[in-house]
Design a protein that fits this description.
Chains A, B: It holds the Pfam family Iso_dh. Two copies of one chain form a homodimer. Chain A is an alpha/beta fold. Chain A contains twelve helices and 14 strands. Chain A starts with a strand and ends with a helix. The structure holds 3-isopropylmalic acid (2 copies).
Chain lengths: 353, 353
């Protein structure tokens, strides 16, 4: 299996090393061969090649079986023109590879739940999968420009039926494999694109008679995530709503540093990255939490390589590390032991072997 | 003072009666004259006149000093074509009167804080004012239509500089009168309109040297509202982001049924409405919580009539009612006394006189 590594900015390099070490362990334990090729993206690529997404990186990704990404971004690039900023690398690779389905599982870890901003009675039992459309909508629609001699600005929310159909189908499929309850989020009382979205969901629901569907307006969804997170199973929504709601949801369990994500194409090729950012303030100090990156590697094994047993093993090993009381400085486990990136990686490896 | 009453749907009528009773008490206690004219809007107007926003209602509002609105909406109108739905009445009146500045104060009430989904340590001390742009952006931009023979849909996020300037100015003014800390929320790493927004905020900040400004991406803001609500003072943002974030914020204190809002034009004319919806399931039962509507009337006195003392008096009377242990069925005060809409209104009146 050809795996492209895009460490990117900030703590990206350190946590990528961790994921690589875990994958090497899996390879030798289960008799697989993973070949790694590292490429530049984001601010790192801008420094090296003057662009956040070099041609070379796109080409390598296009012939890969899967891609692991660390993180991109740093405040120091804020003054660059938009097309040179680190985020453009991420948006560009999503679009170039048509990674239209972003999956973000959000589930707490027992030893960390005390850090949730929510009361125990509210957060307990919540286990959500957010399925976000990732290559359409306001993020890519045209025109997006200044108008009227710079006196106005315009962005365009465009969706083709086929773009909505494939992500909605993915939402139903995910719900079918989980608790068979799908919440479709839109703003159908205001947006034309949301009305089309809702029609497509209603039509598609006939193909999945076992899945219960609810429609929820995005403002109501933003409320319910806080008041009743455990009432959700799978949420499917368009790009911008998914961005906002998945970030809101990511802090509910109190351990943002633990959350992985997958961005998939229809043929199963995918890009896997932690939900957290590049944390430039702690980069290079050896204290970054590698677990979200490691869990992203597990998602890769599960979704792109169908290595279910191997993915399960990594997830169990991560859970075991926390149960043993090990945590990195972004977390806290009462009476546990604080350790750094490398030690945490070693603990997970020990639990794996 | 000419006040237009738009009770609308569901519990709108009952809570409007409550607000009227309070205003009559204020009139006689402080020697004012309020004249009320009632008009139809939303589903109620659709039933009576076949449209959610009759010409007659618009005209009356245009010559009013202020408008009180109960609530609009009911699931039973979901199958109507978009231009006949209740929400269209609300969107229409906002646009017709150019009520571009939506103010939503979010602050908990001590006797109700136990109902917050957040831990006490997280929610304590939070006191936020959200200033939302209300007549631009994706809600009104054109084109908004089906394309390519119905195979695609498009909505348009359009902002003219002047629309952004006036709401940003309002944000700075509000911050100046409060704790002098303004958080401007955008998605400048993706949207052209957000980049213009950010430029305007930076420029405008020179006119308010005492106000500290932070820029926050909308996804990060959705996180921070949950993890650190007490780190905010005033938030200023565009229409759709404001819709989502203000609803998210509205549940943090655990008493959505208590939150008022103001939608203002530049000359001070305004429309005042509770943040909660029309709650058709409990309509007509006499158990609706009138306090958000009453507090909306207080906001009217403060913002449209400069009757500061009178507004303060209402707010104190509402606080006193809760401190005395009175609550409606949507709330809960341990060892308190559950009462209905009318009794609650009477308790507030007693506290006023
Ligand atoms: C970096 C940014 C463009 C990106 C997005 O908004 O999609 C990020 O917030 C995410 O959610 O992956
Ligand atoms: C009813 C709806 C159109 C409206 C909006 O989205 O503005 C409501 O959610 C609000 O926030 O007042």
């Amino acid at each position: 299996k050809q795996i492209i590594l895009l460490p990117g900015d900030g703590i990206g390099k350190e946590i990528m090393e961790a994921a690589k070490a875990i994958l090497n362990t899996i390879a030798s334990e289960y008799g697989h061969r993973f070949t790694f090729h590292q490429h530049a993206i984001g601010g790192d690529a801008y420094e090296q090649c003057g662009t956040p997404l070099p041609e070379d990186t796109v080409k390598a990704c296009q012939s890969a079986d899967a891609i692991l990404l660390g993180a991109v971004g740093d405040k120091k690039y804020d003054s660059l023109p938009p097309h040179l900023r680190p985020e453009k690398g991420l948006l560009g690779i999503r679009k170039a590879l048509e990674l239209y389905a972003n999956l973000r599982p959000i589930k707490g870890f027992t030893p960390l739940m005390h850090a949730s901003p929510l009361k125990e009675s509210v957060i307990n039992g919540s286990d959500i999968l957010i399925v976000r459309e990732l290559t359409g909508g306001l993020y890519f629609g045209k025109p997006r420009e200044r108008r009227e001699n710079g006196l106005a600005a315009i962005d365009t929310l465009y969706y083709h039926r086929s773009e909505i159909e494939r992500i909605v189908e993915r939402g139903f499929q995910s719900a079918q494999l989980r608790n068979k309850y799908l919440t479709s989020v839109d703003k159908a009382n205001v947006l034309e694109s949301s009305r089309m979205w809702r029609e497509i969901v209603n039509k598609k629901s006939k193909e999945f008679p076992e899945v219960t569907v609810d429609h929820l307006l995005v403002d109501a969804a933003a409320m319910k995530l806080v008041t009743n997170p455990n009432s959700f199973d799978v949420i499917v929504t368009e790009n911008l709503f998914g961005d906002i709601l998945s970030d809101e949801a990511s802090v509910l369990t109190g351990s943002l540093g633990m959350l992985p994500s997958a961005s998939l194409r229809s043929d199963g090729v995918g890009l896997y990255e932690p939900v957290h950012g590049s944390a430039p303030d702690i980069a290079g100090k050896g204290i970054a939490n590698p677990l979200a990156m490691i869990l992203s590697a597990a998602m890769m094994l599960r979704h792109s390589f169908q290595m279910i047993e191997e993915a399960d093993a990594i997830e169990l090993a991560v859970n075991a590390a926390l149960d043993q009381g090990y945590y990195t400085p972004d977390l806290d486990i009462p009476n546990g032991k604080q350790i750094g990136t490398k030690e945490m990686t070693e603990v997970v490896i020990e639990n794996l072997t």
